Structures are given as C-alpha cells and as structure tokens.
Amino acid sequence: MSRFSPSGSVGNSRKPTTQVVNKKNHVYFDGTDTYAGTKGGRTYCQRIVFACDCFEPQFLFMNPISAGGAIAGNVINLKVTLETVSDPVDGSGNSTFYPLSVNGSRQIAVNPDQTVLTDEIPLSFKKGQIAYLRTFVSSTNNKWPTGISLSAAYAHEGVLDGNYANHPASATSKMNNTVYSTDGAATTVTGTPTHENSLRQPGLGGTFASDVTGYGCALCVGKPYPTAAAYPVVANIGDSISRGAGVDGNFTWGIGYGFMQQAVNAAGGAWIDMGLTGQSASGFLGVQGFDRWSFLDYCTHALVEYGVNDISLSGAASDDKITTIAGNLQQIYSICKTRGVGKVYACTPVVKTDSTDVWATVTNQTPGGQGPNGFVPRAAGGNNTYQDLINWLKGNSVTPGSGGAVIPARQRSSH
After folding, report:
1. Cβ neighbours of residue 319 closer than 8 Å, sequence gap 6 or more
2. Where are the domains of the chain?
3. What's the CATH superfamily of 233-394?
4. pTM over 0.85
5. Closest of 218, 215, 168 to residue 190, by C-alpha
6. Cys-Cys with 4: which of 55, 244, 316, 382 at CB 3.0–4.6 Å?
7. DSSP assignments along 286-337, one per residue
8. What pLDDT digit, counting tens, does each position of 204-227 carry?
C-alpha cells in the first residue's frame, strides 16, 4: 500500500475505469440487528482482499428495506475507517488508519433504500493485499440491516459494542473520537494492536463468535492499474446454497464457502454474493430482487443457482410446474444479459446424498433426504419437476441472450 496522488479532484463519482477490486462482496441483507447496548452502536470489522493492483478505492454502503433487513423510515449513521497493517497475518507491526468520508463529511447517513459511495481515498494497493474496514453503525431506533458473514476464526473479522472506528492515540489506548486531525490525516500506530484497539484479534475472552452476521460495505470499487491482469467479476445469484450453506472445507477467504465462491476463486476472480436464504427464482424477480439488480452492472459473469426452493413450493410436484420455474429462470438470464453481463451460467439444482465412503466416490452415494422427493431423479422415485428442470437446463430450450449463446465478457466494467 502506498500514497497515490490523483491527477483530478477527489470525490465520490465513479470514473469509467472503476471496477470491483475487493475479492469478496456482499449485497444481500436479510436480517436486522436490534441494538440493546449502552455504547450507542456497534463496530463491525470486515476484511478487504484486493483482487488486483489498484488505486483510489471507494466503499459502497446500503440501507435496503425490501429484504426485511431494515425498517421503513430508518436512517442509519456510519463512521468508517480503513485500517492497513504491515503484517495482515497476525495483526502485528504497524497499523495505519484512514478516515473515510462521503462528500467530505466524516459522518455518513444512509437513508432507507439508499446506497452511498465513499470519496476516493488516495492510496494504492497490490493484488492480494489485505486491509480491514471498521464500520461503526448507529440509528435513532437502534436497528440496522445485517447479512454479511464475518469470521473471527478465519478472517480476523468481528464485532464489538461501541465506537471503534477511530484510531488509538497510542498502541495501548482505547479508540476514541478526538484523535483525528481536522484534515483527515492518517496516523501510524507502532507495536502490536491490543484487544482494546483492534477488532482483528480472534477469540480473546470469548468476545468474538467464530461466524457472525453483521453490517459492512456491500462493495469495494477502485481503479485497476493499466498493467493489472484482467479477471472475472462474478454475480453469485441464488438461495442459501449460493452463499455456501452446508458446505465446509475452504476457509481461504473466511467462512466455509460453497462451490460458487471456490470456482471463482480458482479462476482468479472476484465475486458479488447476491443470494438470499430460502429464496426461489420468483423472489429474485420480485421486490426482494430489485435491490440487487443494479449490481449486475459491475459483473462480467453470473452464476445462477435456483430450483431447490422452487421445487419445494406447494404444488411443485405437478407436471406443469416446470413451465413456471423455467419461465422465471429464463427471465433472470435475460435480466443478466440486459444489464451487460457477458456470460451467464445456469447451475442445476443440487441433490443431497448419503454416502458410504464419506463422499470419496460418486458410485457410493444415494440421493434423497431433502425436500418432498423434489431432489431425487424420477427413476429413483422422485417427482417429475426435478428431472424436467434438469432436462430443460441441459437441453436446447433455454433462449440465449442477445448476440448469441456466448458473448465475450467485458474486461472492465463501465460503472
């Protein structure tokens, strides 16, 4: 990380070369934090992993109400700090704290159904570099949306009661609200951060849960250097399976990610998780999907994983249900293409299986045990809808987007 002197003015308008530069991004909020503490709010610590060599990062914050994560009319107030560390592995060494602003204001208010983008910060980062975002959240009714997965055990993320969004006056002092200079200059803190002034120390006194759900930035964008290699930015669209529910074993980026995240990571890409637990394809097309559609503009690819909850719906086993499900999926594929996504990949609904050899082989697995026979092939006694959906997805009935079935993905987002 180094200081970068931009040639233009610093503001929160996106430039044509701006694209997603954080490895993992989350634009779903399906819960509510009801604060009952005495310190005015909570501070969430969120790890940022840069996907390329880039400069002038900005962070986008949301206050959606359509997913049930916020209360209509509720304004949330934020104070946000970017913390860079000399040793991101164990948190030792120097920490430097950079206050973030929106239109020059340190106090950030996010109205219902509003998104805000922080001002560009004149810093540059290397691919794979790690930083931490501290977001102090408060509101007049002590409620704000949650949904972002935070991992103390694997990503040094966490949450603490109170305002920890400011840098400490010394390496051993608590965070406070008085040590920022008026010009927003950064301060370097030498020595190992303590429990009092760092949210990055996992497991101290049971303060942090290993996996928690909280609030933070939905998206981090920036300007890749011209020499930065191109990489895919993938929209992961679906239900809880698209967010890795029930899948363990890959903790590279914190939390056990599912097949979508692991696939994008293996391809060297960044992703935007858009899935909602319990959602069907019709839900993404309805009011609960509107908050997320605009983020497709940032994406070069999309993975669409629906079908499990669609089949589980009442009456889904009827032979004509496939028409509705296929129609909804086709609309989602078309929306992705209309928003400029280069390639859209349709995922088949998963089959939950039992195994006699701990899933070492396919031959020793037996499908079943999930849903009203909805995830079992027809030949094994399942209903028609599951098999018909598989046939539709693998057949020739899916209509390709404008320009053909394969469209070269954009190398840079225009948003």
Report:
1. 384, 385, 388
2. 2-224, 233-394
3. SGNH hydrolase (3.40.50.1110)
4. no
5. 168
6. 55
7. SHHHHHHHGGGGG-SEEEEE--HHHHHSTTTTSTTHHHHHHHHHHHHHHHHH
8. 333 434 457 889 999 999 999 999
